[in-house]
Each structure stands twice: as C-alpha cells, then as structure tokens.
Amino acid sequence: MRAILLIVFGLFVLAGGGLAFVRCEGSPPGVSAPATLALGRTPRQVAVEVFDEGAGLRDVTVHVIGKDGEKLVTSREFGGGFVSGSEISRETIEVPLDGKALGLGEGESKLVVTARDWSWRTLTGGGTTRTEIPLVFDTRPPRLSVENTQTYLQRGGSGVAVYQVGEDVVRDGVTVGELFFRGHPFPGDTTGRRVAFFALPQDVPTDPPIRVIAEDAAGNRSAASWGTHFKERRFPEISIQLPPQFLQNKVAELADARGIDAADRIAAFQTINSTGRAEDERKIREVTRESVTEKLWDGAFEQLRNSKVTSHFAEKRSYFVEDEKVSQATHYGYDLATTAAAPISASNSGKVVYADDLGIYGGCVIIDHGFDLFTLYGHLSRIDVKPGDLVSKGGVIGLSGATGLAGGDHLHFATLLGGVYVDPVEWWDPKWIREKVDAVFAVPSGPAIAETPARPADAPAPDVAAPAAAER
Ligand SMILES: [Zn+2]
C-alpha cells in the first residue's frame, strides 16, 4: 500500500514538475499595433492584435497617457485559469479612440497596451508585455487654399483646379458628388501647390457639389468650393438595326473569343453587349488607374484627319433585331470614319499603357497623357506600338479596322479622366485648351509672384508711383 502511495506521489510530483516547467514558459505575449498613431477630430478605431504561444492570453488593457494622466480606453479578459491556462492564443481588439472624450490635449500623448498571459513565470501576474505607441492628437484641419479653378463646366465635360495644401496633407483632390479625383504636384513647384483634373460624368446629377479637399494623417479634412456654372446637356438617342450577317458572323466570332455559347445569336449579342462590355470597362479602369504625374500633352488634341463623325459621345443606343429591341448601351466615345485601314495617329503626346485586344473594342491602344488623362483608340486592324512606348502627337500607332464590336471600318476614339469618360470635344478645341488648361499651367508658382528681383541695398528705391508718372 505504501509503495503504491509512493508511486502515485512520485507521479504527481513528476506531472506537477512537468506542468510547472511548461507553464513557466519564458515568452511573454506579443502585441502587434501601428508604430505611431494620428488622431483627429473624428473618432476612429485602431486594431491591436495580441498573441501568446504558451499558456494562452489572460487579459489586455489599453490606456492613454495624456496631459490629465492615465485613462482606461478598453480592456478584455480572455477567461481560462491559473492551472488550465487559456485556449485563446491570438485575438484582435478594436480600440475606440475619441480624443475629446479621452480628454487628450492637442499634441503628443501615448497609447499603452498591456497584455498578460497565464504563464507561472512570475508569482502574481503571469508574463506581461507593455507596448507604448506615440499618439498625436490634432484637430486642426489642414491648410487648403484654392488658387485657380474652372468656373464653366458641362455635363460630360472636364475641369481643373489648382490649390495649395499644408505639408501634413496625405490625400487631396477634387470631389464631384461621390467621385474623387486625386491631386498631383504642380509641375516645378515645391511649396505644396497641387493640380487636379476632374470629370463631370455624362450621368452626373444636375449641378453636383464640386469641392477641393485635403486630408491629414489624423483624418482631419478641409474642403473648399467655388462658384461654378453647370451647363446641362442632352445626349442623342439612336436606334441601331443588327443586320443578319452581323449576327451570323461578327457575334459568333466575338462569342467564340469570350467562350459564350453562340447557338442563340441574339442571346450571345446580349451577353457580349452587357456583361462583356462591363468586363471591358473594368479592364480599362484598371489600365488607367496609374498615371504619369507630368503633363505629356501639348496643346489641343487632334481629331482623326479628314474623318466623318458617325457617332457621338454619350449617345444612348438601342439595338434592334427587326422590330424587337434586344439590348441597349451608352456609347462613351466618338466614332470617326475615313478610308479603310487608315493610319491612326496619337491625338497628342503621351505614353502607351495598353496595346492589345480588348473585347468589344477589338485591337485597342490606350495612351496616358499625364495627370490621369487618357485617350483610347478602338477597332484597330493593326497595332504598331507597345506598352511603355512614348508617342508624339501625330505619330502613327496603327491602322483603323472593324475588330471588336464594329459593323464597319472606323476608329472608336474616347477620352478618360480619372477613369471616367469625358467628351473629347473640349480637348479637341484649341481655344478651350488655351483658356482652361494652358492658362492654369502658365501661372507661376506661389512665391514667384511675391518675390521681386533682388537689388543692392544702396540702389534707389523703385518708382512705386509709376502710373502717376505716366499721367504727366
Ligand atoms: Zn464607338
């Protein structure tokens, strides 16, 4: 009996020792959080991850240390026990940060995350990790002043704004209703001057709110608007008859390329013209997401020489087979027709970002002209450029054709600004370019206006009464 007791006791000690060894694990919990935090007027949530590979998580507390001392932000207990530990080894805590409610003063504070595990390493508290994150509370909206903007805007048209922002700005641009058009550094400027081109989509609500906005790292936002005149426009509505040979040959060919069943030609056309078209537009938005922050174009854009306009921007198209309407779409470019296989040239200087087949657009070239402005050339029968090529205005990029969803040889020409189709007519107009675009870039940088040429201290003062002198 004694022997059995001894064995049991021995086993107990061994097991206890083993458990103690395991549970005295040496690594305290880990904390994964942003290295620094910026908090603005608007409360925000910050995700903090805590983890422990040994005995499991016990609890976590989050404090701020500001000018009024320490304040509890949030805490969490993970359950478990001294003997069993906890099964929770990894957890993400959403920490709500409201600077005003927490009594933070403007300027620097600290966010302190304290995580404990169930380790027996210390007699009382378990393994503890304390992480301090510098936090800046800043409720002042960033500096923003609008310098030069376009006043007359039209549905489907383009606009530009030049403005100045403070150094702490992390995001700026122009908002048109819900849409955002990013700003770029103004060429040759180092004083926070920015330029943003923006589009007024063909389907924008009448007289949309247009603002220049600037946001800092803390999420504070400044906004400025200016007096605009919005010109309403109506776009043509046209009917297109789908001829039998178009359905027979073209639709079969396009359906084949997309892996669509073409047994029912009308159904295949409907799929190509709806989901196929939408896929192509997504591809175009993807291609035009990045742009050179440099004005590569020079002067007015060129319309295809000696071409006849056969379809206009934002035309609403209804497609018919005999008397039945089978599909509809909006046409986002101009159709320009000359002779078959006519040489197609770049309408302005820029960088080729796409040169390949693109669904309904057939053989397609897309050129980046800088500052989020792109031109698109569709239905080409031959492409003579490749992505990365720099092309100059008038340089041949390929030959016209009837590839893609085209009934005959023509060029589909479109202009995009920030991923939104705009009417090329403005960009083709030398007067519009001169007055609305070139004028904006011609304005010298901020300090250059204020600065006067240096003159020696002993030189006579300049004649400030020059107009009066002229009257004499
Ligand atoms: Zn077209």
Topology:
Blueprint: H1 2-23, E1 30-32, E2 37-39, E3 44-51, E4 57-66, E5 69-77, E6 90-97, E7 107-117, E8 128-137, E9 144-149, E10 152-154, E11 158-165, E12 169-176, E13 179-182, E14 184-185, E15 193-199, E16 210-216, E17 221-224, E18 229-231, E19 237-241, H2 244-258, H3 265-287, E20 308-311, E21 315-321, E22 324-331, E23 334-337, E24 343-345, E25 350-357, E26 363-370, E27 373-380, E28 382-383, E29 390-391, E30 396-399, E31 411-417, E32 420-422, H4 424-428, H5 430-442, H6 446-450, H7 466-471
Helix pairs in contact: 2-3
Bound molecules: zinc ion (ZN).
Q: Can I get a quick summary?
A:
The protein has seven helices and 32 strands.
Describe the structure.
By secondary structure, this protein is α+β, with helices and mostly antiparallel strands. The protein folds into 3 domains: 27-137, Immunoglobulin-like (Sandwich); 144-231, Immunoglobulin-like, CATH 2.60.40; 237-422 and 437-442, Glucose Permease (Domain IIA) (Distorted Sandwich). The chain is built from 7 helices and 32 strands. The strands form 8 sheets. Strands 20, 23, 25, 26, 27, 29, 31 and 32 form an 8-stranded antiparallel beta sheet that branches. Strand 4 (57-66) and strand 5 form a beta hairpin. Helix 2 (244-258) packs across helix 3. The relative contact order is 0.10. Residues 447-472 have low confidence and may be disordered. The structure holds zinc ion. Zinc ion (ZN) binds next to loops.
